[in-house]
């Protein structure tokens, strides 16, 4: 598995915070720079969450639009009109977290199917934000297989820090209610595409009573650096979370993140 070059910019700072109830919070930093080669590859990777390039060519036919116009008008959340900007930042955060658990932690993380059939480009996709799967043995069933369900929240604009990690923890606690429908939707999409093997990998996690596995929960806050407030983040509590003993917490901070998000969408359209 080749790691995309932009993941070199996602760096573990080594800093660890503690929640109010003593749970460790990892602090990562997105140290992006103006490297056109890396940004172009990232834009393609990002674009293909919404529509792969082969399908894009077919969808553009008959519309009278260029590929870039089609993406901006039909697939990508709006840059300026609400709620487009918040959907953009939310999608970016989810995709970055998916990259993190796939390429940094080594989980299988199918996520393109989450974005490519949005009925409304300016709405967030329903269900669990990010699913990761890890198997002790491919094709087998082991009680140590892991289902990683991650919730992400972003704050990339404004001047006042808010505790988005606490928001992510709160929504993560609701994932147990969304898990079954999210797994079913993912399995169905694979079956509709004729992809039986990945559908069966998802199916392995649909009956924990008969086929036990480890359920890991995660909560992430993706923050523009001026909105990163250690004191506020450390007020987070995991009390009452249904999977508090298997809960991973991370914060990803970065400079000018909304500018990066908009530039990435623009490049994804312009280079299609």
Provide a brief overview of the structure:
With about 270 residues, this protein is an alpha/beta fold. It is built from ten helices and six strands.
Give your account of this protein's structure.
- Strand 1 and strand 2 form a beta hairpin.
- It is built from ten helices and six strands, in the order E-E-H-H-H-H-H-E-E-H-H-H-E-H-E-H.
- The protein has a domain at 5-27 and 93-258.
- The longest helix has 21 residues, at 84-104.
- Helix 1 (36-47) crosses helix 10 (257-270) and helix 3 crosses helix 10.
- The mean pLDDT is 95.
- The chain is of the alpha/beta class and 272 residues long.
- The protein has helices at 36-47, 53-60, 67-75, 84-104, 112-115, 164-172, 175-192, 196-203, 230-233, 257-270, and strands spanning 10-18, 24-30, 130-134, 146-155, 214-224, 247-254.
Radius of gyration: 19 Å
**What is the helix content?**
25-40%
Q: Helical element count?
A: 10
* Number of E strands: 6
Q: Spans of 5+ residues with little confidence (pLDDT < 50)?
A: none
β-sheet strand percentage? 15-25%
Which term fits the overall shape?
A: globular
Strand order of the largest sheet: 1-2-6-5-4-3
The string of secondary-structure elements, in order, is EEHHHHHEEHHHEHEH
> What structural class do you assign from the helix and strand content?
alpha/beta
Largest sheet: 6 strands, mixed
The N- to C-terminal Cα distance equals 24 Å
Organism: Mesorhizobium temperatum
InterPro entries: AbpA_HamA_C
Pfam families: HamA
Domain Anti-bacteriophage protein A/HamA C-terminal: 9-268
């Amino acid at each position: 598995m080749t790691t995309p070059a932009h993941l070199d910019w996602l760096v573990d700072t080594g800093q660890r915070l503690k929640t109010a109830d003593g749970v460790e919070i990892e602090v990562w930093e997105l140290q992006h720079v103006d490297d056109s080669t890396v940004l172009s590859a990232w834009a393609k990777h990002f674009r293909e969450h919404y529509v792969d390039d082969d399908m894009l060519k077919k969808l553009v036919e008959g519309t009278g639009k260029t590929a870039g116009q089609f993406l901006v008008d039909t697939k990508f959340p709006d840059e300026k009109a609400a709620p487009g900007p918040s959907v953009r930042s939310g999608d970016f955060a989810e995709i970055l977290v998916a990259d993190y658990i796939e390429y940094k932690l080594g989980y299988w993380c199918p996520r393109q199917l989450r974005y490519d059939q949005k009925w409304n480009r300016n709405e967030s996709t329903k269900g669990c934000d990010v699913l990761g799967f890890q198997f002790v043995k491919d094709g087998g069933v082991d009680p140590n297989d892991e289902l990683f369900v991650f919730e992400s929240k972003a704050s990339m604009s404004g001047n006042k820090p808010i505790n988005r990690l606490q928001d992510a923890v709160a929504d993560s606690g609701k994932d147990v209610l969304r898990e079954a429908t999210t797994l079913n939707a993912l399995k169905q999409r694979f079956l509709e595409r004729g992809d039986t093997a990945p559908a069966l990998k998802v199916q392995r996690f649909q009956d924990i009573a008969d086929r036990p596995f480890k359920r890991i929960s995660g909560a992430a806050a993706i923050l523009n650096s001026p909105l990163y407030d250690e004191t506020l983040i450390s007020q987070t509590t995991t009390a009452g979370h249904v999977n508090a003993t298997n809960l991973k917490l991370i914060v990803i901070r970065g400079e000018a993140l909304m500018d990066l998000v908009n530039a990435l969408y623009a490049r994804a359209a312009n280079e299609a």
